[in-house]
Design brief:
Largest sheet: 5 strands, antiparallel
Shape: elongated
Number of helices: 2
Oligomer: single chain
């Protein structure tokens, strides 16, 4: 406990679903223990934070994950990740990739269901007027 920890300050830009750039910075962490860190997502809210939290909690490498919004008027989300030993930043990155795969699956399943509905029912039964 007497060791001094050097705080990590990393800023990354990631793209989710190929549509939006999310700025991410690791605000609290240490060089000695990279298995735990708090990440700050700018211009985000509960929608992304809760989705990432859910995916992170499915990962067996994660021992704790939670998020907070510092203030309702501040468009920022802090996500805390603690792992069994793997670098928290790598686990978060993997979870973001898993979330993208889930979103792609939902989108393709929805698109397929719409196409099947249109083929089965016919566009005339949808009461669409130009």
């Amino acid at each position: 406990m007497g060791e001094e920890q050097g705080a990590l300050s990393i800023t990354l830009a990631i793209v989710l679903m190929g549509k939006k750039t999310v700025l991410l910075s690791m605000e609290h962490g240490s060089y000695q223990d990279q298995a735990q860190a708090t990440f700050s997502f700018t211009d985000e809210d509960h929608t992304l934070a809760n989705s990432i939290r859910y995916i992170l909690n499915q990962d067996p490498r994660v021992t704790f994950c939670g998020y907070s919004i510092p203030h309702p008027s501040d468009a920022r989300v802090n996500i805390r990740v603690q792992t069994t030993g793997d670098a928290a930043s790598e686990v978060l990155k993997d979870s973001c990739q898993d979330l993208m795969l889930v979103c792609q699956h939902v989108t393709s399943t929805f698109d397929q269901a719409v196409m099947e509905f249109k083929n089965k029912q016919g566009i005339e039964s949808m009461n669409i007027t130009p």
